Amino acid sequence: MDHCTRKLLGLTDENLFFEEEWLETIEEEGFRTNLIRAKLSYIPSHCRKCGIKNEGQIIKNGSHKTKVQLLPYRATKTELRLVRTRFYCKECQSTFNAQTNLVDENCYLSKELKVQITLELAKNTTRKEIADRYFVSDVTVLRVLHTCLKTYHPRFDTLPSVLCFDEFKSMKSCSGKMSFVFMNGQTQQLIGVLENRRLAFLKSYLLKFTRKARANVKYVVMDMNAPYFELVKAVFPNAKIVTDRFHIVQQITRALNQLRIKTMNSFQKTEPTKYRRLKRFWKLLLKHAYDLDSSNYQYDRSFRRPMTQKAIVDELLSYDEQLTRAYETCQLLLYHFKHKDSQSFFDTINSLDQRLPQWFCKKLTFLNKYKSGIQYALKTRYSNGALEGTNNKIKVIKRVAYGYRNFHNFRARIYLIQGLIFQVKQKPVKHAA
User: Fold this and answer.
1) Which of 44, 105, 158, 369 is the most buried (most CB within 10 A)?
2) In a domain, 369, yes or no
3) Is the pLDDT of residue 404 over 70?
4) Where in the sequence is the domain holding 402, given as residue range(s)?
5) What does pTM read for this prediction?
6) How far apart are CA 109 and CA 426, in angstroms?
7) Minimal CA–CA distance to 93: which of 65, 63, 57?
8) Do 390 and 270 have their domain in common?
């Protein structure tokens, strides 16, 4: 085998010796396999058992046949049938085999193959597809994943000044089928995923961080989840709570949408035309008024005439006075929220029209409970937008894999795809000088 072929196949170890007919193609286990035959031999510099320097007391003592699976070549399984020289040490009367940097000791997968499997695991694809692509078993791919996870060691001596909290639907084995996730609010780097979102569990885990690290947290961004408020007060002494802006807007629009549904259902039997229009154009009622198009007319079959978005909303609001008052109130709140005017925002909430339904007013005055968090949300630029995007990626990971039964495998895959695990640490093999 010439030097260029060695470089192409990754067989650059100078202690490998190839015969003239070094390549054979066979059918094995239903696969077409390229067999490369070679011999590994050298003069060891020391005994691998007792460590004594070789001054002639280490002699060759037969050979040992092994298999090394290489990277597939031209989508064909490739194996190296290696005849390793066995050595005998007269000093300690022990034997050991010749070693090569091509493969780890007591392993049949080459280092290049394991690195390539690791790179594939960092992509959102199934383990089964990876196993089929590299002619290994699913258990082998899982073993490589566990090897990668061993290189990940969470640090409990540091925390960012901005933390983002959230939860996502995980698996049945987790408490309440939900898991907890948190990330750095400034760099948008995932910090960890926990299998339990309950207060006692989260408190015991986060208290593992040093007091100095916890005192460094200045802001915690989260949704309106009451247990998280207790968690922040108990764990982060200097942290201020920032309510996620998306959940504030969601609370307002949900209240309006529920009133729209009640109004719509009241017309179902008496005036079906109004019912259908309120059902069809619900998105326009939830849209910001300043984003509605008032100049482009398009024919609409529901009204049987050209209409603009603004004209459609005006028509829908004319059906019910309560819906009109609620719409104007919500639009006013969204206006103050967009312009970050917290004073006017809460003044509007505390002076709601008494003609509005009581349940509707209750949903809006509920925001008073989180007044401090909303004020910080309007003051600062922090939000859970990046974390919500990460949650969506996690759901895609689970969907592509058709679900997970083992949470630790699921978390390991998340960490690998999100970049928390960067490389597999490999110990160099020392042999002949």
Assistant:
1) 44
2) yes
3) yes
4) 162-244+383-417
5) 0.81
6) 13
7) 57
8) no
